[in-house]
Design a protein that fits this description.
The complex is a heterotetramer, with two copies of chain A (about 350 residues) and two copies of chain B (about 325 residues). By secondary structure, chain A is of the alpha/beta class. Chain A folds into two domains: about 5-180, 3-Layer(aba) Sandwich (Rossmann fold); about 195-330, Rossmann fold. Chain A is built from 13 helices and 14 strands. Chain A has a seven-stranded mixed sheet with strand order 3-2-4-5-7-6-12, sandwiched between helices. In chain A, helix 8 links the parallel strand 10 (about 205-210) and strand 11 (about 230-235). The radius of gyration of chain A is 20 Å and the shape is globular. In chain A, about 70% of the residues are buried. With about 325 residues, chain B is of the alpha/beta class. Chain B has helices spanning about 1-25, 45-50, 65-70, 75-85, 120-130, 150-160, 190-195, 210-225, 255-265, 265-275, 285-305, and strands at about 60, 105-110, 135-140, 165-170, 175, 180, 200-205, 230-235. In chain B, strands 2-1-3-4-8-7 form a six-stranded parallel sheet, sandwiched between helices. Classes of the chains: A alpha/beta (about 350), B alpha/beta (about 325). At the A-C interface, helix 4, helix 6 and helix 10 of A face helix 4, helix 6 and helix 10 of C. Bound molecules: thiamine diphosphate (2 copies) and magnesium ion (MG) (2 copies). One thiamine diphosphate sits at the interface of chains D and A.
């Protein structure tokens, strides 16, 4: 099948959505600029005109309210933040309005907006340009929160998000933008709230999200060589969560490891453990574990981020420990001299 | 034509007053169990502005929303039922006094966060523009809402993109108990400041309903014709406490004298006198209009009172639209 | 000893702090008005003058930034939001600045600010006036989050918060304001990050916060009659969390119930379960449980809030179930006709 | 006196230019691994404003902060080391290019969120007032920052409470690749709009460092004397791409012609010529000043390069102050 990059898949989803529905609009800082938000919005303005694809002032709270308002009258706005961190200026509109309008007006309003937020790691993005705050949004009833990993999922989930009648926070990890996968042409949807099983095994269940799934895939390849086989579940949406699949897997393996791109405290990865305890208690053979960021702001220097972020090596080590083995991830993985703070050769900062 | 307009305007004024004062009367029965911000004294702005709007124009409001809801033609039975927390309420009992809606007359909603609906109005105006409709979207807010950054951001955006929005600021001098002096620069008129952002502005006496109407009609006409946003500031005064049914001139944040000064300028009485003087209407017609409205309001309270409470069962499935 | 109401204790803490340190200031919407934020700030302006106690415009984000700025130059601002919900307008300043300044400038700045936020339940506060979002703040490295239950703790913790060199989110539940407890005169501090053991027992550990502790105390009285005895830990601060005390207790009882004033997803009560699993696995005799709000916005009507909020009755039922008994909380508690949506007779809405 | 001022101003300008261009040169070694926004072309504003401030006055800045840090007298060795992510960096390697600090000269910090430091400056000014000090607090920001609500909220508060803040808007016509036209109303000058909020304003040519200095000196004097806030807008232009070391006039968001037009108005060359014409300084003095600064800058890069990286161990204990 045809392969596309994650960023191209996003772009294609936009194109399809805007083609099939004239009410879909796309805006945000820089969506029509020469870089097109890492390529994800390139060409849209040329195809759909400046009424439907446009730049905005740096006014995050108002622009979010404007998306909500437009959506109340049938428009399906997709708003983009080049960094999730900027959305903190609009928490009022997201939490007090978008998340509540459907419920608090007795079901009479729908708020079909999608807010894209880009998160990242590495290359000195530092404390205010790399926060992975999906758990904050997941804490808010009325929001949906989506975190695709593959290009295939990115396209299908963006289409579903745009045509969902509820506000969807759509989180893209910058390190995924260049990864390729098979992407069918045309319109297809992936159900929000359904996870994807990436690999099968009886030893342990790994529940992962977004870029951490890529690290997990690498780890699992190495683990296989030591005859360790895990269920890897890419949750794809953080809210709603696909509990059925998670419980089913843990009931099979009896062991749970959650991977989070963010800080552990107050996180969805804690929830997964709490819900698994509630629903699969008698199946658990060992204590469930969580691999997340340390409880500190992101440091900037590469010498600091090196130990701050979690990688395949760390996954191998924790899995190994949970299974009573003594593999050393750092000895097993050879990164071939590639610096730890970039996703690949194609990435030449600063963005 | 103008005759009917005036009578309709009077009806709006009296209906708002009657609803608000009936709420005040009955509030201490403690059956309306939610924060409630009454508009008594401020009816002129709501009625005058909404009189200038078409049925399919849109309106948003804030925490002090009853007057706007009623003036836009919202169903008062559903409104009172909402305040009583009943299943027949306009928001099915989930929203309360601060979260009213009546989409059938273009009243798209009120919310309790100061400034919260201002960008929503711009968003609806954007949608109207995209759909090539000529509807006007109006949002009502108080003098404190202009202190929120989102107000400024919205005006800037609406001007830059020529959005057909009517921004109505009801300046009643207070934010809860705080006078303007602790919140905004001395000698700075709100409308002048806002004009600096680049929007057309006007201002007027909010307690003269006809002036409000004329200025609004003028603004609405321009908005439709030129596809631009306009900001209007109207001075007015709330009679009762910020939130709740009582008078509170005794607690010290404002004086009885100030209150009486403004009570003199009662928009309802003012307009009633004007209609009588202009012989638009006579005393007996007034009495019969009033009687009709009082009946309607009483019936609405009865309806609300008699309605059932909503059931919790199943409500968790209404968080998302599916 | 002298008894004070929670609201008076807050007031006294302010008075002491402002007396012993001229750099303490108190501001926020209505702090100097006739109601004095439910009595908590009454009289302060008269005592300390309008330069140190003042009202502000409705400009939450700027006023938070102003607090941070002042604190960088030695001032200790205490800012008050009459509702936590309003603070959502200032998430940018809280998360991007306050939480990070100490760390991201290499330790050269301190941000000694306290932000009081009032939460509540009942009396139709509804979807946008009653959100209990402590877990969002707990998710942010660099913040401290405090939730006192008793008047005694309120005073000691507010004093500690004001004199802490880090940003502290100080959450007061409206239903606690009128509750009395012994409160010593003068200056005393309660360490942020230390919980309080409220009762002892071998059957089960309840970890609770803020107003839920009051409901738990009622529940425990009833449970005692059925010879059920629990450790009740009032965590008092949500971040940092007093893990030592929690783990110690769970190791003793083998059973854990967490009570939360907010929604369960992405919550600190999930964290407690995750951390207990990690640290006390072999002691656990049964699955840990969580009692929190359903994942929906707060409805307004009293007929809806009745089933939305968690009360002693629900605590009894879940404890009973966890211990394999069959007590019925609703049969055991007689509320004497008091409506469920007010904390007591003294409360006459609307605030 | 004026002579020394001019030479100091020239030194500031040249030092900023030299640092920025050296970063641009060395950036593709990919040892500076963080987003970096260069100020080449905009030196006039930073240098002129800071020349008007005292050592113990305070300064905040934004993402494009190098010029302000250097102009206020910040230690460039620590700055370069910070960009290299070294333990000797001004923020110990935790902040990078967008988070600079040098408290010893009153440079209280720069941050990356547009508009984020604007209220901080008002907060410091409040503290200064409470402490009865006469310090001025200055905050630098771009033309996009005025679009954030927090800017407006801060100006409103600063005016209402007469806070001694100097707000400096560097209008370089762009926010990343977005021209003013898509962000702000046509024919609306920023300084005029801001004046409407109630603050004293002035504006000038940011590429004339002496004009910037004189207007700033005047403003700083008024702020100290009258204890009021003042807003100044200076027009200027960034030469290189928004973020990173390259030129990008080829990618289409602005024209080479526009760039060349502004390059003609190079503030450094302009001021150098002015000093030569006014005979403040001669060519050989200029060369020796330049040589000294170039040495200093090279030494700073060497220092940064040679410094150690910070250790992760223990850093988790530095999240909170204890
Ligand atoms: C963001 C926010 N801050 C504070 C409040 C508390 N509050 C409720 S109503 C009100 C007064 C608003 O004053 P104004 O806008 O003048 O309207 P008025 O009540 O005078 O009609 C305030 C401050 C709020 N609801 N939202
Ligand atoms: C709140 C926020 N929104 C968006 C961004 C992305 N961003 C970084 S710099 C920048 C441009 C700001 O333009 P301006 O204020 O004019 O400063 P300049 O870069 O021109 O110096 C933007 C939009 C950000 N950092 N913060
Ligand atoms: Mg008002
Ligand atoms: Mg700019």
């Amino acid at each position: 099948m045809r392969k596309l990059k994650f960023s191209q898949a996003i772009n294609e989803a936009f194109e399809i959505a805007m083609q099939i529905n004239p009410n879909v609009i796309c805006y945000g800082l820089g969506v029509d600029d020469p870089k097109g938000v890492f390529g994800t919005t390139l060409g849209l303005k040329e195809k759909f005109g400046k009424d439907r694809v446009f730049d905005t002032p740096a006014s995050e709270n108002a622009m979010t309210g404007i998306a909500i308002g437009a959506s109340l009258n049938g428009i399906r706005p997709v708003m983009t933040h080049q960094r999730l961190d900027f959305s903190l200026l609009s928490m009022d509109q997201i939490i007090n309005n978008a998340a509540k309008f459907h419920f608090m007006f007795g079901g009479q309003h729908t708020v079909p907006i999608t807010i894209r937020m880009i998160t990242g790691r590495g290359w000195g993005q530092g404390p205010t340009h790399s926060q992975n705050l999906q758990s904050i949004f997941a804490h808010i009833p009325g929001l949906k929160v989506v975190m695709p990993t593959t290009a295939y999922d990115a396209k299908g989930l963006l289409l579903s998000s745009i045509f969902d009648d509820n506000p969807v926070i759509f989180i893209e990890h910058r390190w995924l933008h260049n990864l390729e996968s098979d992407v069918p042409e045309g319109d297809y949807r992936i159900e929000i709230g359904k996870s994807k099983k990436i690999s099968d095994g009886f030893d342990l269940t790994i529940v992962s999200m977004s870029y951490m799934t890529v690290e997990a895939i690498h780890a699992l390849e190495i683990l296989k060589k030591s005859d360790i086989h895990c269920d890897l579940i890419d949750i794809r949406s953080v809210k709603p969560m696909d509990w059925t699949t998670i419980f089913h897997s843990v009931k099979k393996t009896g062991r749970l490891l959650t991977l989070d791109t963010g800080v552990g405290q107050g996180s969805v990865s804690s929830d997964i453990i709490a819900e698994v305890c509630h629903n699969c208690w008698s199946s658990l053979k060992a204590q469930p574990e969580r691999l997340s960021l340390p409880d500190m702001p992101t440091p900037t220097s590469p010498s600091l981020t090196k130990h701050f972020y979690r990688r395949s090596e760390d996954i191998i080590n924790i899995v190994s420990k949970m299974l009573g083995k003594d593999l050393d991830g750092y000895a097993l993985i050879d990164r071939d001299g590639l610096p730890h703070d970039v996703p690949g050769d194609w990435f030449k900062g600063p963005f | 034509m103008e005759h009917t307009l005036k009578i309709n305007l009077f009806k709006k004024l009296f209906k708002i007053r009657t609803v608000e004062e009936t709420i005040a009367d009955k509030y201490t029965e403690w059956e309306m169990r939610c924060p409630t911000h009454l508009s008594t004294g401020q009816e002129g702005v709501a009625a005058g502005v909404c009189q200038a709007l078409e049925d399919d124009d849109f309106v948003f409001s804030s925490h002090r929303s009853h007057a706007h809801y009623i003036a836009k033609g919202g169903d008062i039975r559903k409104m009172i039922a909402e305040i009583y927390g009943k299943s027949t309420g306009c928001s099915a009992g989930r929203g309360g006094s601060m979260h009213l809606i009546d989409k059938s007359v273009g009243f798209l909603g009120s919310t309790s966060i100061v400034g919260g609906t201002i960008p929503l109005a711009a968003g609806v105006a954007l949608s109207v523009k995209l759909k090539n409709s000529s509807q006007v979207t109006c949002t009502f807010f108080g003098d404190a809402a202009v202190e929120e950054g989102v107000f400024y951001e919205t005006i800037n955006y609406a001007v830059t993109n020529k959005l057909p929005v009517l921004f109505i600021c009801e300046n009643n001098l207070y934010s809860v108990y705080s006078p303007l002096s602790v919140r905004q620069p001395e000698n700075r008129n709100i409308f002048e400041m806002v004009e600096g952002i680049g929007i057309s502005v006007d201002h007027g006496n909010g307690n003269d309903p006809w002036e409000v109407f004329e200025k609004s009609r003028n603004a609405v006409g321009k908005i439709r014709e030129l596809q631009i946003p306009i900001f209007l500031e109207f001075s007015t005064y709330r009679w009762r406490e910020h939130c709740g049914p009582f008078f509170d001139n005794d607690i010290g944040y404002r004086t009885e004298t100030e209150f009486l000064h403004w009570k003199e300028k009662d928009p309802l009485q003012f307009f009633e006198n004007m209609l009588l003087e202009q012989r638009v209407i006579d005393e007996s017609q007034i009495q019969s209009i009033k009687a009709g409205i009082i009946d309607e309001v009483n019936e609405a309270f009865q309806f609300a009172h008699d309605s059932d409470f909503p059931d919790f069962t199943g409500i968790q499935n209404s968080v998302y639209h599916s």
